[in-house]
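call fold(seq) -> tokens
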Amino acid sequence: MKLSREYKIGLVTIIALALLLWGVNYLKGINVFEKSSKYYAVYSNVGGLIESAAIYVNGYKIGNVSRVEFNAESMDNIVVEFSIDSRIKLPMNTVAEIKSSSLISGVKDIYLNLGDGPEYYESGDTLLSLAETDMLAFLDPLIARVDELVISLNDILNEGNRENIGRTLENLQVTLSSLKQSLQPGGDLASTFTNLESVTGNLKDNNEKISTTLDNLASFTDSLAQSDLRVMIGRIDSTFAQLSLLVEGVNSGKGTAGRFVTNDSLYMNLNNSMASLDSLLTDLRENPGRYVRISVFGGRDK
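ret:
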């Protein structure tokens, strides 16, 4: 059967269009010979996400974005359609997050954060969405802060402040030199460290004596704790209580001692009696003949 020229041209055109369609889809990352499932996600801002962007799960590419367009009902929402390998099942609560693949290039892709199920999405379902914060929006305030810091540094490093900083550095250098000299053998700090080393050496050498002293102290405190110290203190308290009662009784005139201390007439009588006794003894010493008579012949005078 002989084919006409027009038939050949039409067949070549169809083959060329098929190859062109396959090539365009291949460049987009879509394999027309592989069965795929379509899903959707809605974002308020896609941050530059384009068609043919990759779809990743745990860092592995499983599909591509096939379409990005505004929602017909609301211009505030952007609908993203993407296709993935139909063999991959997405659990419920899976989140489609737009993230930057590279900070330098700014290319955006979709990373699927698998949910906890237990059911699975079906082809044509809309997934939960999440858009990464734009790094430029984060860096703009930081850049402004850096500019303010640079301006502040320029104000600090003016001519007058530079002179002050120079003098400060000179003083610091002098201080470091003095510190270095102090650390030299014979310096103040070196001598201090030497004395400290000597003290620690002595403590180390007398460690056994210190241990013995501490043991003796512990033994003394144990003995003191085991003694009847509480009973002794109780007896002392009782003695002081009785002494307090005695002093109180004396001050109030109770008992012999109290009456003697508080009664003036008794004191005066006793004082007069002592004076009379003293006078009697004086007279007896000076005039014994008045009281005692002695006879030479052994007789007694009547």
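Strands lie at 36-43, 54-57, 60-70, 78-85, 95-100, 108-113, 128-131.
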